[in-house]
Design brief:
The structure holds 2 protein chains of 2 kinds. In chain A, α5 crosses α9 and α5 crosses α11. By secondary structure, chain A is mainly alpha-helical. Chain A is built from 15 helices and 2 strands. Chain A starts with 5 loop residues before the first helix and ends with a helix. Chain A has one domain: Orthogonal Bundle (MetI-like fold). By secondary structure, chain B is of the alpha/beta class. Chain B has 2 domains: 184 residues, D-Maltodextrin-Binding Protein, domain 2 (3-Layer(aba) Sandwich), CATH 3.40.190; 134 residues, D-Maltodextrin-Binding Protein, domain 2, CATH 3.40.190. In chain B, the strands form 3 sheets. In chain B, strands 1, 2, 3, 6, 12, 13 and 14 form a 7-stranded mixed beta sheet that branches. A 5-stranded mixed beta sheet of chain B has the order 9-8-10-7-11, covered by helices on one side. A two-stranded antiparallel sheet of chain B has the order 4-5. The longest helix of chain B has 22 residues. The chains are: A mainly alpha, B alpha/beta. Chains A and B meet through α7, α9, α11, α12 and α13 of A and α1, α3, β9, α8 and α12 of B.
């Protein structure tokens, strides 16, 4: 044994240093926790908050009018543009409106399904339903958006099915987009409402019945308040995912949403304005999350 | 119970992750991007014998050495086909065989997208097919290098009408080799639009029966299309060049496009999406490229479409192959430039894309049904009189006026976002 491989060395050596380190760490649980979290925490801080900081910095730069390249001269023009140009207000309100509409329809559609899954279905059926809800998520977002394009288009299957009844599909327009986004984000809502409904103890429902509460009364006074945080938790997904989406809007409609405006400024390229515009959904989502927290959504997650 | 809740939380968490990654997938603008074995490490050739390129001044390469084994191409769709769209159209593989330069191709949908891709990845692309509205921006920003056209022997056969233009030559210095030219065209479904249109006006009138089914190119440069229409319909505006618009002229073009908005059924940048929309009947009339018409007519069954250059004239393009000033594959880049404008390859591109080849000897090699490229008006200068090649608008009017300020591209791109609403 003349060659000393590092792996052979460590167990043989009386590792007093290691033992002292272990003892020191044992005495200081906070330091231990700090070291444990340093890696992921640092990553979160640098990669996540750092990129947001860079985004914010970018929004303060100007650019060459001919080539569109970024010049590192400070300016507030991009922010002024956001505030003074009515276009961005319209687009922002339109995007928030769509996000709210999609969230409401997702909630309405998800609740009965989740309720059935959580409180009515047998364990076997419940398992099947969970798989059924998760199934669409196995295929790519792009494939789903493109398929919806085909479904909604003029000669698409929806119009084909509706024509015998003298009806017409929503077509490739804003209503169609509403439908598509509702479809895309529905599983997130179902799962989170399902989780919320499932943890309501049966005893509460029995107590309600004992006190004379009928089905609807129990639903309104017991189930809904208890499930509400879960609804809000689900709405975080539907709302924020709609807010940031630009692919489905550009595939389905000719209407611009905030994501499309950011993308088109990326293409021009006007990166500083794109960065400034990116702050809009960031602010909106932050406000939304604060409201959601007040409504108890984070306990329901 | 506890465990189940934990699992649900886990499942939701995983879903969020998958949703986020899904949202970040490639933009729909470029699903046709073809890259034959993009990541294959190349067989490195002998050291480049060409001197190091310099972005400015006279230090042009004086000889083309052996290839470096690798080349990355940023091209308009249809300019660098490797057989993945149609196995019969493949001129990338023969290039790889001839030169040993393993070629990967990325396509783009608009000049702005090209410029953005090229400038945000300044080391990535060795060569680019740039239209006039990207080429000058690339030159001014220093992203492309002067080209010694003596090292691309096929340059001498390029039509004189394409040489020494402001978008490929600056102060007598060539920044690339001309590739070919084409005109944006008016296409319609013959079963839905009658009688046959002759004018762009059909696309700008929201009272027409096909309003709501108009397909429009999604780029700020499309404002020039409105200006071309105004040159005929409002002569009092006195527009001499659709890329040189002063305040009043610009406002008129923007107003025309805002009035057109209700008629629009599609904004396209991805040629495949326009093809699909025409095929499905979601749009019935629109501005297009010949290649899209060809693809529609080749569908089974063929989609009944016709295409013309309307009476007002049209916007169009005259493209230049340019070399990245930071390229590490200068020899492969020169080989590509010479190859892509060689008569037979230029003829293949022309035939596939449906545009006029840049090489005068290419016409003899186009297929019989394209009858010596008469169909592309390759050598018919009269045809190109009212085709306005894309170029970047500037504050100093590009038509030579000095008494007014013109709207620069910045204003164009802002207006385009506003037109779309």
């Amino acid at each position: 044994m003349t060659t000393t491989a590092p792996s052979a060395e460590s167990p043989g050596v009386p590792s007093s240093a290691r033992r002292r380190l272990a003892a020191a760490l044992h005495r200081r649980p906070r330091l231990r926790l700090g070291l444990l979290l340093a890696g992921p925490g640092g990553w979160l801080f640098l990669a996540y908050l750092g990129s947001l900081a860079i985004l914010f910095l970018n929004a303060g730069w100007s650019r060459d009018a001919f080539t569109g390249l970024v010049k590192r001269d400070w300016t507030l023009n991009n922010f002024a543009e956001l505030v003074t140009n009515p276009l961005y207000r319209t687009v922002t309100l339109r995007t928030i409106g769509m996000a709210v509409a999609v969230t409401v329809t997702c909630a309405l559609a998800a609740f009965p399904i989740a309720y059935y899954m959580a409180r009515v279905a047998s364990p076997r059926v419940r398992g099947l339903l969970v798989v059924a809800v998760l199934m669409p998520l196995w295929s790519s977002y792009l494939i789903k958006a493109y398929s919806w394009r085909q479904i909604l288009s003029g000669d698409g299957v929806l119009n084909w099915a509706l024509t015998p009844f003298g009806l017409h599909g929503p077509g490739l327009d804003i209503v169609g987009l509403w439908l598509v986004l509702t479809y895309l984000w529905l599983p997130y809502m179902i799962l989170s409402v399902y989780a919320g409904l499932e943890r309501i103890p049966n005893s509460l429902l029995e107590a309600s019945a004992d006190l004379g509460g009928r089905g609807f009364m129990t639903f309104r006074r017991v189930i809904l308040p208890l499930a509400f945080p879960a609804l809000v938790a689900g709405s975080i997904f539907t709302f924020s995912l709609t807010l940031g989406d630009y692919i489905a809007p550009s595939l389905i409609t000719t209407t611009q949403f905030i994501g499309n405006v950011i993308l088109s400024n990326f293409g021009v390229p006007n990166l500083p304005l794109a960065a400034a515009l990116s702050l809009i959904p960031l602010v909106v989502v932050t406000i939304y999350l604060l409201i959601a927290r007040r409504l108890g959504a984070f306990e329901a997650l | 119970m506890q465990q189940r809740r934990f699992l649900t939380v886990l499942a939701v968490g995983a879903l969020v992750v998958s949703a986020c990654s899904g949202g970040g997938s490639p933009s729909p603008a470029g699903p046709g991007a073809a890259s034959p074995g993009a990541s294959t490490p190349a067989v490195s050739g002998p050291p480049a014998s060409a001197p190091a390129p310099s972005a400015s001044g006279p230090a042009l390469p004086t000889a083309v050495g052996a290839g470096e084994g690798e080349l990355t191409v940023l091209a308009w769709p249809g300019y660098a086909e490797n057989g993945s769209t149609d196995p019969a159209y493949n001129w990338v593989t023969p290039f790889e065989t001839q030169t040993g330069c393993k070629t990967s191709v990325q396509v783009f949908g608009t000049s702005d997208e090209a410029f953005s891709l090229f400038t945000t990845n300044p080391d990535k692309f060795d060569v680019i097919s740039a239209s006039g509205d990207a080429s000058l921006r690339l030159v001014r920003a220093g992203y492309v290098q002067p080209v010694n056209v003596d090292l691309t022997p096929n340059y001498v056969d390029i039509f004189p009408a394409l040489k020494d233009k402001p978008y490929n030559t600056v102060n007598g210095v060539h920044y690339g080799v001309p590739h070919g030219r084409g005109s944006n065209l008016l296409m319609w479904r013959t079963d839905k639009v009658t009688p046959d249109p002759t004018s762009w006006a059909e696309m700008f009138d929201p009272s027409k029966p096909w309003a709501g089914k108009v397909s429009v190119y999604n780029a700020p440069i499309y404002i020039a299309d409105a200006a071309v229409v105004l040159m005929k319909t409002k002569p009092e505006l006195n527009i001499k060049n659709p890329y040189a618009l002063d305040d009043a002229q610009f406002q008129a073009a923007v107003d025309l496009l805002k009035a057109q908005k209700p008629a629009i059924g599609q904004y396209w940048t991805d040629y495949a999406l326009q093809q699909q929309a025409f095929s499905k009947g979601d749009v019935t009339i629109g501005t297009t490229w010949q290649v899209i018409t060809n693809l529609l007519q080749a569908e089974k069954p063929p989609v009944p479409v016709k295409v013309i250059k309307p009476v007002e004239g049209a916007t169009g393009w005259s493209d230049t192959w340019m070399i990245n000033s930071k390229t590490k594959h200068i020899n492969c880049a020169y080989k590509w430039l010479d190859y892509i404008i060689s008569p037979s390859v230029n003829a293949q591109v022309a035939s596939w894309f449906g545009e006029a080849p840049g090489n005068s000897k290419a016409c003899a090699l186009t297929p019989a049904d394209q009858s010596n490229c008469d169909i592309f008006y390759a050598n018919d200068d009269a045809f190109w009189k009212d085709v306005w090649y894309w170029q970047t608008p500037e504050a100093t009017c590009v038509d030579g006026r000095t008494d007014v300020q013109c709207k620069d591209f910045d204003a164009w791109s802002k207006a385009w976002t506003e037109i779309k609403g």
